[in-house]
Amino acid sequence: MLHRDEIIKRLQIYVEQQVLDGRSHGVDEDTPLLEWGIINSMEMVRLLAFLREQFQVDIPPDKMVAAHFANLASIADLVLKTASEQRV
Amino acid sequence: MNLHHLLLESARKWPDNIAVQDAQKSYSYREMDTLAGQLASALAARGVHPGDRVGIWLEKSALTLAMMQGALRLHAVYVPLDPLSPPARIEAIIRDCGIRMLCTSPQRAELLSSRKELAELRYLFPEEAMAAERALIAIPAADDDLAYILYTSGSTGTPKGVCISHRNALSFVNWAIEELRATSADRFSNHAPFHFDLSVLDIYGAFAVGAAVLLIPEGISYMPVQLIEFLQTAKPTIWYSVPSVLTLMLEQGNLLEHELPALRVLLFAGEPFPIKHLRRLYQHWPGVRFLNLYGPTETNVCTFYEVTHIADDETAPVPIGRACSGDQVWGQKEDGTPIQPGETGELMVSGPTVMLGYWGKEPHGKRPYPTGDLVTLEPDGNYRYLGRRDHMVKVRGYRIEIGDIEAALLAHPAISATAVLTYGEGISARLAAFISCNESEPPSLLELKKHCAQRLPRYMIIDEVHPLPSLPFTRNGKIDRLALKTMLTQRSEDHVTQR
């Protein structure tokens, strides 16, 4: 599995380029994604597909709670945790 | 009869029936009655008097519902506040209707504590209130007394408080339970948040007949897999939501692959249901009744249409139907006369569900309420919704005054002019802002989302921004929204081709 920093980096690029307008720089690991309406209910589906494709993780339904998607850091932790559980 | 009598009566008749099921546990009518009594007692002990507005800024739970009931038992007025709205918006509402007591969590209270204008505001945290003695208070209210206030988007940037009386709400609820032939064996799902008027049916429809209301947590309200899991485990007999949610479960959750034997009525409202999705559901569940409900917050539900047939080549959404809840409705032409079949006019509503008025404004009185919705009358007597007369839009069932978002964007120092438009339908509806700026570098989408998030409810945060050197104007000096709309359609088509 990738290093946490690398996951955050890829997520940051995804959010800046694919979710936002490409001119939005400065998304960092603490940017409140849900609170600022960056990841909304409609973007969530796309984000889950991105996680599957980029990191080969399928987020189980019981993990899909707001706390896990609050910012890039929490998403990266979720990816790492899910990946380690999938391997077992 | 008052709204709080429904729970009291059902607690007497069916004390052991499940009244509310939230994410944590189930509560019987007896337990809900006790909770509501304790909370009424706690509110009274803190000086809440009849007629006072009690704000409720909490996520959905049985306790939140008990708060609402507790306020009503004191003949106070409850004001449900969007748990996803920022402190600035909450402050605007608190000040608008003079809320002096706010039921909320310690964390949320902290967000308001530094606001100078709210220095006098008092708080009640539900957990601590549960220690109170159960009080045997239930002060009767007159039918036309104010029961609750629902805040909706206002065109000038200030939210509007729609004042609903006991009679207003009960006229609709009584019509609905009869039409649905609801009984104490029913299980009402509750998808809508409590500050959204769709929730009135779920909560009070259940309380009126001793049925259960099953609360769907805000966190999963647009998560198709979890919603379907909820449907399978909670087994509602009556489902009510905006069409977008049903479309989402259909498209992204394979809704039709799951058996839902308990479901007997499916109600939808808030926006037109794209007919191709409705047709699939309707054909798949022949034993389920499908009802389209219609009505702005100001009139509750004033018309309904039961789907009995959808032709294979039908492309238009189903009609909004005919009057219900004891109301009269008609389409009115520009010259003030009612429309005839085939003609177009504005839908007018008169009757017991029409609101008392907006908080702080003149009472609405007995006048008919002009909905701002354009309708046509079909030969069979059903009304069909055509569109809006003004700049109000619907995004996933939420009504939004475009002026509300534009006012927030104009508060940004770099923006000199803006026009906000929506495009796309149902679940893919998006809010796009065109801006022109007085600085060389226009603010990014990230910056504007942050800016909106500090001022607006979350469902009003823009999805895209398009900077222009200047906005196009029509010959009479208004922003040319049609030209902008064309620009948007063009861009989204280009976008699709690129993909």
From TrEMBL, chain A:
PROSITE patterns assigned to the protein according to its UniProt record, in alphabetical order: CARRIER
Q: Which InterPro entries match?
A: ACP-like_sf, PP-bd_ACP
Which Pfam families does this chain map to?
PP-binding
- Domain (Carrier) spans 4-86
Q: What is this protein called?
A: Carrier domain-containing protein
From TrEMBL, chain B:
Residue ranges of every copy of the AMP-dependent synthetase/ligase domain listed in the record = 9-359
Among SUPFAM superfamilies, the record links this protein to:
Acetyl-CoA synthetase-like
All copies of the AMP-binding enzyme C-terminal domain together span 405-478
Q: What superkingdom does the record give?
A: Bacteria
Q: Which PROSITE patterns match?
A: AMP_BINDING
Please provide the record's keywords in A-Z order.
Ligase
Name any Gene Ontology BP term: secondary metabolite biosynthetic process
Of the GO CC terms on this record, one is: cytoplasm
Q: Which GO terms describe its molecular function?
A: ligase activity; phosphopantetheine binding
- Cited Pfam families: AMP-binding, AMP-binding_C
NCBIfam families for this protein: AA-adenyl-dom (TIGR01733)
Name used for this protein in its record: D-alanine--poly(Phosphoribitol) ligase
Q: Native species of this protein? A: Thermosporothrix sp. COM3
Q: Please name the taxonomic classification of the source.
A: Bacteria, Bacillati, Chloroflexota, Ktedonobacteria, Ktedonobacterales
